[in-house]
Predict the 3D structure of the following.
Amino acid sequence: MSANWIRKVCMDIFEKIKKSFKNGEMHEAEQAIKYGYYPFFLPLEETEGTEVKINGRKLIMLGSNNYLGLSTHPKVKEAAIEAVKKYGTSTTGSRFMNGTLAIHRELEEKLADFLNKDAAIVFSTGYQTNVGTISAIVGRNDYAITDKEDHASIIDGVKMSFGKMLRFNHNDMKSLETTIEKVPEESGSLIVIDGIYSMAGDISPLPEILKIAKKHGARVMVDDAHSIGVLGRNGRGTANYFNVEDETDLIMGTFSKSFGSLGGFVAGSKDTIFYVKHNARSFIFSASMSPANVGAALASLEIMKNEPERIEHLWKIANRMRKGLKSLGFDVGTSNTPIIPVYIRDRMKTVFMWKALFDLGVYCNPVLPPGVPPTESLLRTSYIATHTEEQIDRALEIFEKAGRKVGII
């Protein structure tokens, strides 16, 4: 037989998996599970928002994005139940086909009105919202300008587009100016930033970004996943907080945080939203939001409008916790929102600190490389409008005990 007909055998694509279990990341995860300090995928047996039960033990929840405590609100739960009764458990189709319900349209109209925009569309998840919107708008000759601490869904959206990505240093306006000057005159550019950054808990300087965008002819999209329900009048987000809604081209958000539901949305001009609706692949080729999620989101939106005291209490609780952590000697970085990171810096000390807190009755989230740079391992804590003063007192006591035990303070 001719040598030309000999079939070459490729390397086994699963070889990397074997190696990762033998001496890589998966091996470390297996060891952590074996010795009882693995902090991920812990099943919650019960949750009422501010407390959870794990392995029969109750812990204070300081690791949830349920900022307004609406996931357990009676009106929100009832709205989800009523939506299932009326529409069933699933749409079983995309919005283009059989998956558009009357309540999808109702939610979109009410969101657009809430955010002072012409139109809005809802996606099945927040991740799909960023991926679909960015990849639809950023074309082959376009540029996406992103903050180095932008959420992964923003980065993935740019990667899935045919455009190019340029990144600027976190919240650094000189770096943004230098970066955007690299965009050729014949190319379009979209600046995409987080309103509140999900790890550092700091707020984007949106007015300054808009000035730079206007100077260079760029458009601006704000990911308000952690800002809706937290910043602005009745939780309308970052643009409302800075009074720059008219200048902000696109406002994106999720229902999985302050809304206590699941899904995502983007709001903007009528033409832009119409274009995204017909070009975002994650919108076109996914089943639409389930009735229960839409019903819950609608109910949560009404509560946001009518109960601003929830947001006020959320900030009161968060500010008290931040002050308490600082007074104990913990490093909380530049946080000025209900997301408060506790920087441990050392990777293994972060895990040990998490375990000490867990054993004493506090649940929070360890964030390790590659999720953060090698020297920025941290515990991500976040707060809920339904946390009580007593729970905050207890949490601070536990942080002090755990910090001294691990040698952090």
